[in-house]
Amino acid sequence: MTARHPSRVLLALGALTTALAACGGDGDDAPAIPAPTPTPLAACMALNGTTVAAADLSLPTRGAWITSAALVLPGDAGNTNGEYCKVLGAIKPTDATAPDIRFQVNLPSTWNGKALQFGGGGYNGSIPNTVTKAPLGSDTAPVPLAQGYMTLASDSGHQAADADDASFALNDEALLNFGYMHIKKTRDVAVALAKSRYGSAPKRMYYAGGSTGGREALTAALRFPEAYDGVISNYPTANFLGLRLWGAALARAVYDNSSAGWIPPAMVSEIANRALQRCDALDGVADGLVSNMPGCRAISAQLVSDLSCKAGETGNPTTCLTPVQISKTLSVYHDGYTLPYAFANNITRYLGYNSLEGITMQLGSQAAYIEPPVSGPNAHHVSRADQFVKYFVARNPAFNLLTLDIQNPGIYQNRIVELSDTIGATSSDYTKFKDRGGKVLWVQGQDDPSVSPYANAELYGAVVTRYGQAAADTFMRFYLIPGLAHGNGKFLLAWDNLAILDDWVEGKQSPPATPVGFDSNTATKGRSRPVCVYPTWPKYNGTGDINAAASYTCARS
To answer: At residue 539, what are phi and psi to the nearest 5 degrees?
Structure first.
């Protein structure tokens, strides 16, 4: 690192060192007097105006500069994380028309020698919170920064007020940064800052995120195995292309033929409520959580039959489902799709959701399609698919999503396949990461309406197929959590995932056979369940407190 503008602090430190050296006399035997160790304030302030050379980053940039460095004190308003240096800066792109990567790095005055990089969400565009717990982490343990972790994150290489805004992807470098490059670029700058502040690089580098951040965590392990020691991936958009094309398929299913496939909110709620009534107790107890999802899916066809319009019925918000609603919308939502061509890593399908097993489908509050679609009035996934197709695929802001046939995308097929390699974490080849001791904690919610639990379970299954279960268990654990949705849900998991990961990486102990997870929802805060490894699920033992993990056993049937 170099200083762009000499700081008064550094000048003062240099003068002090010179004065002390002069006091040592001019005798040959005079002992050398070591330079004084800068105070945390001086060390932090010295980072202001410094730069990180492009050569210090492994991927192409024009280097980085520090825009501000400020010491945050324990008594400062809102700070419960101890003393740390808050560093903000920007990584310059090679393309002068591309946006910067803006980042934040927090350097604790009492460092544990380790670092945690936080992932983003949606299409990113802002720096994630770096002074909070790891995603789905413990509600009772100190947050990573307070534990002495250096924490860091970036906006992935563009700035946007709305995480649904994908217009940045019209720029090639911004697209590549979002896909994967910002991960390593941000990490490399943080390492340079650590060397400057502490005199050494972190001995452990971890990544944690959910959704887009979960994809980034898996991407860190797959693309940069030498740079990361462990990752926490929660409900990742790992098959990013599959998910976005699923949104495009849902758009056609719902809005074609004058929105004939749209299901009104009252009927969406009716489907979810009836599914819960049928499936809640299949795990041994009626607690509002569907844990025995295989058993529930086995009877979903009967639910559709019961709700389908009979002779003389035409369908309305609360009484029955039309043939079009069933064959189009429910089919795409529940079962997903299969393509006649393959994404990267020979992926040809995107599996569906538990839309007939208790989750509430996100189909929008109105039948009319808005151009461009808006999440809320329109189906949630449709707006993000629209942004993706406009800016990543067609690169035409005027493109109409409803004209895209994902089964036969024509001139866009090659572009779609190319993007599936640029943005995604669908490879099963973790060999380099595994062989150097890297570890993965992968969590997926069964109630997730945004990322298919079956798509991620299938990707995990490919890892098991490649290595075998025993070898896969040495570096990866996959958990499917009943009640957990997408950063929310009926059971909002909180567990000490960072401590479990760190102990595993350090060789202290493998993850517990059955970790305990706690619900952090206000209404049910403190209830617990076993965190069961896939494909097992929590089954009530028949006796004991239904809100205590000890009353459950991880079962397969």
So the answer is: -110, 130
Tell me if 94 sits within 8 A of 184, measured CB to CB. Answer: no
Sheet hosting strand 230-234, strand order edge to edge: 2-3, 50-52, 64-72, 84-91, 101-108, 150-154, 114-118, 204-210, 230-234, 439-445, 476-481
Cα–Cα distance for residue pair 445/451, rounded to 1 Å = 9
What is each CA distance from 62 to 56, 156, 168, 174, 529, in whole angstroms?
Answer: 10, 16, 19, 14, 49
Q: What size, in residues, is the chain?
A: 557
Segment 182-241, tens digit of pLDDT: 999 999 999 999 999 999 999 999 999 999 999 999 999 999 999 999 999 999 999 999
- 435 membership: H or E segment, kind and range: helix 431-435
Given a cut of 90, whether residue 491 has pLDDT beyond it is yes
Residues 341/309, Cβ–Cβ less than 8 Å: no
Going by C-alpha positions, the residue among 483, 174, 205 that lies closest to residue 359 is: 483
**Exposure class string for 435-446: b at 16+ Cβ within 10 A, else e:** eeebbbbbbbbb
Distance, C-alpha 133 to centroid of its chain: 14
CA trace torsion 46, 50, 54, 55 (10° rounding): -40
Is the separation of the CB atoms in 391 and 169 below 8 Å? yes
- Catalytically active residues are 211, 448, 486
Cβ atoms of residues 170 and 391 within 8 Å: yes
Residue 61 · residue 15 · CB < 8 Å: no
In sequence order, what E strands does 32-188 have?
Answer: 50-52, 64-72, 84-91, 101-108, 114-118, 150-154
**Nearest alpha carbon to residue 152 among 216, 98, 236:** 216
Nearest to 254 by CA among 122, 362, 384: 362
Residue 98 has pLDDT above 60, yes or no: yes
- CA pair distance 512, 495, nearest whole angstrom: 12
- So where are the chain's domains? 2-20+35-202, 242-422, 431-555
Residue 319: the pLDDT is: 82
- CB–CB of 449/486 below 8 Å? yes
Tokens of 153: 């994150």
Write out the two tokens for 274: 């009836």
SS3 (DSSP) at 355: coil
